[in-house]
Specification:
The chain is α/β, with parallel strands linked by helices. An eight-stranded mixed sheet has the order 3-2-1-4-5-6-7-8.
C-alpha cells in the first residue's frame, strides 16, 4: 500500500472523487500528492498540451512534451497506483462532471475568469453540493489558497475573487517556480486531510517565499 507511512493520519481519501481543474503547476502537484496519500478517483480537466516551459514548474518531464496534460498526468497517477480510476476531459470546461461520490474540487487554472465561471455554474445548480472546494493561486514566489466546505461556504467565493485585469499585484500562476508549485500541492493535501478529519483548517492562507511568512485564517469546528 503506497500510503502506508501516512496511515492513521487520514484513511478516507479513497472515499472521495478529486476534480483537478487545470493540470499545470498547481493541479499536477496536488493530484500526485493526493494519490500518494490515498486518493483513488480523479477527474482531470485541461485542454492544453505539455510544452517545454511546463517542465520546470509542473510534474511533467520531457517525454510528456506534446501530450495533453490530462493524458500525461493520468499516466503518472497510474504509475503510482494502477488501481486508480482516472477520467480525462481534454477540452475547455465551464462546469464539473459530478460523480457518485463526495466531490472535492481543486481549482488550479492560470486565470481568474475560469475560476469564477466554474463557481458560478456550481451555484446556479441548486442540486450540486461539493464536499470541498480549494482554490489555489500561485505567483512566482507567493501562494494564496481559499477553501470552502459545502455549498453554503461557497456562496462567499466572490469575496476573495478579483478580475484578471485587476490582479496585477496578486499571484498569477503564469509566473511560477517549482518550489512554489510543490508547496501548493502540499498545502492542498494538508487542507483536505484536516477537513476530512474534522480538524481545524485554514479557510484562507498566503505563503510568501522571500519572507518565509505564512498568514492564515483558521476555522475551528465545534
Amino acid at each position: 500500500m503506497i500510503n502506508m507511512r501516512c496511515e492513521g493520519l487520514v484513511d478516507s481519501l479513497n472515499e472521495h472523487c478529486y476534480h483537478i481543474l487545470g493540470c499545470g503547476a498547481i493541479g499536477s502537484s496536488a493530484a500526485l500528492q493526493i494519490a500518494r496519500t490515498g486518493g483513488e478517483d480523479f477527474v482531470l480537466y485541461d485542454f492544453d498540451k505539455v510544452a517545454i516551459e511546463n517542465i520546470g514548474v509542473s510534474q511533467y518531464d520531457t517525454n510528456d512534451i506534446g501530450s495533453h496534460k490530462t493524458t500525461a498526468l493520468k499516466s503518472k497517477l497510474l504509475d503510482l497506483n494502477p488501481h486508480i480510476n482516472v477520467t480525462t476531459v481534454d477540452q475547455r470546461v465551464s462546469t464539473i462532471m459530478y460523480m457518485d461520490q463526495k466531490d472535492i474540487i481543486i481549482l488550479g487554472f492560470d486565470n481568474m475568469a475560469s475560476r469564477k465561471e466554474i463557481v458560478d455554474n456550481i451555484m446556479k445548480n441548486k442540486y450540486t453540493n461539493p464536499y470541498l472546494l480549494i482554490d489555489g493561486r500561485m505567483g512566482a514566489e507567493h501562494y494564496q489558497q481559499y477553501s470552502y466546505v459545502g455549498r453554503k461556504e461557497l456562496q462567499s467565493y466572490n469575496d476573495s475573487w478579483y478580475s484578471d485585469e485587476d490582479g496585477d499585484s496578486e499571484p498569477c500562476n503564469k509566473k511560477a517556480t517549482s518550489y512554489c508549485s510543490n508547496m501548493a500541492g502540499a498545502f492542498i493535501v494538508n487542507t483536505i486531510r484536516k477537513v476530512l478529519t474534522n480538524s481545524p483548517h485554514e479557510t484562507e492562507l498566503t505563503f510568501n517565499f522571500p519572507l518565509m511568512s505564512l498568514t492564515k485564517n483558521t476555522y475551528f469546528p465545534k
